[in-house]
Amino acid sequence: MTDDHDGVPELLAAWAFGALQPADEKVVPLHLAGCESCAAEAERLRETVRLLNVPPGTAAAGNGSPVARNGSAAVSQNGSAAGATGGGATGAGSAEASVAGGGPAGADGVLALALRSRPALPRVAEHAAPYAAAVAGLRALLREVDGHGPWGTPVVHDWDVRDTVGHLIAADEQLAVRLGLETHTPPSRTTEDASWEEAWNTRTADVIAYERTRDPQETVTAWAERAAALLATPEARDPERAARATTLMGVRLPVADHFVVRGFEAWIHTDDIGRALGLVVPPPPDAHLWQLVRLAVRILGMALGPTAPPVLFAVTAGESSTEWVLGSEDEAVRGELVLDAVDFCLLVGGRYTPDEVPRGVAGDEDVVRDVLERAAALSWL
User: Fold this and answer.
1) d(CA 198, CA 211)
2) What gap in Å lies between CA 138 and CA 47, rounded to an integer?
């Protein structure tokens, strides 16, 4: 290629990943040295890769994870979580090929590829890895917002992008307080006799109202610092310390599981922001996704109780599948339900209704319907 501005932007994604073709390895740096606009864009893309800990020269994750809603309905215009069940195309093959081959990839492709390629951070224990990865992904996405999208874009409920980050500050706060971290502003208005739902609604409303008085970058900094503090606690790194149980959001679970919940919520809201801005956010890596699924199944089983009509529940992710019997162990199975892993998480996260979620059903449809409704009712996100 020649040293012209029209050709170099198409190669910036490959440059960010250290995946340029040999013929371009000298040409692109020379152009960047003399072109301020390309140099700024190249540095922004490389910083996105750095935040996600994607090693230079890594062009693809190679784990076969499907892009959320098969990579298309993730950015539906009405904001609903529509799409097909799992097992479809990854939706990332073109981005991988263009990065590896030096073709056009654009910021959206780089973001999706970097999110999908992110490794678990080694400085935390397995139970905190989904949260660490989700935090890295949201940080990268928020850099896209800061540079290219309005913070006031409606996202979910009556929240815009900044409000959604404020919501995460409030949500992380409960675990942070239990682990001995300080919380400063705004002061809490909740009372000891309030139910957890009342306390949660009051606190999240107060935090969002406070963050609306600040610059969006101050909100992002507050959230990022709180997340980093959580990931620096001994409980994030030591499974034994994280084994003790505590009650948050009305559910008593080991601290380790509450870290998984934090990862679940951070990913759900990253996906919310991505859809609002027209950016595809991939699902968590398979290992993290199955951690979310297993925890959600346990909580769903607790919600149904041991006397509910038994349902054989199967969750699939690509070629993997796991089955559980929910409800009574003393009766024959009365219904069967099959859900894709991402779809199940979106149902539990309140992004699908029982009627919308793609599913496979056999047997008694009423008992299966009860499982779907109970799963959807778990969400407070």
Assistant:
1) 20
2) 13
Residue type, 346: L
Instruction: Write the single-letter amino acid at 101.
Output: G
Largest CA distance in the chain: 74
| Tokens coding 223 | 């959230």
Q: Are 346 and 81 in contact (CB under 8 A)?
A: yes
List all residues 6 or more positions away from 158 whose beta carbon is below 8 Å from its beta carbon: none
Query: What is the rounded distance in angstroms from the CA atom of residue 303 to the CA atom of residue 297?
Result: 10
CA distance 92 to 85: 17
Cα(first)–Cα(last) distance of the chain, in Å? Answer: 49
For β-strands 320-326 and 360-363, DSSP reports them as unpaired
Residue type, 200: W
Strands (E), 186-281: 245-248, 251-254
Choose among 104, 94, 44: nearest CA to 72.
94
> Are 132 and 49 spatial neighbours (Cβ–Cβ below 8 Å)?
no
Global pTM value:
0.71
Q: DSSP label at 156?
A: E
68-74 CB contacts, 8 Å cutoff, 24+ apart: 68/271, 68/280, 68/281, 68/282, 68/283, 68/342, 69/342, 71/112, 71/280, 74/271, 74/274, 74/275, 74/280, 74/281
Q: What is d(CA 160, CA 276) in angstroms, rounded to the nearest whole number?
A: 9
Residue 160, beta-bridge partner list: 154
Q: What does the angle CA 113 – CA 145 – CA 342 come to, to the nearest 5 degrees?
A: 45
- Residue from 81, 375, 146, 133 nearest 266 by CA: 133
Three-class HEC string of 255-266: HHHHHHHHHHHH
Per-residue pLDDT of the chain (381 residues; tens, 9 = 90+): 444 566 677 677 666 656 566 666 667 777 877 787 777 777 776 666 555 444 444 433 333 333 333 332 232 223 333 333 333 332 333 333 333 333 334 445 555 555 554 444 447 999 999 999 999 999 988 987 776 668 999 999 999 999 999 999 999 999 999 999 987 777 777 667 788 888 888 889 999 999 999 999 999 999 999 999 999 999 999 999 999 999 998 889 999 999 999 999 999 999 999 999 888 888 999 999 999 999 999 999 999 999 999 999 999 998 899 999 999 989 999 999 999 999 999 999 999 999 999 999 999 999 999 999 999 999 876
d(CA 191, CA 202): 10
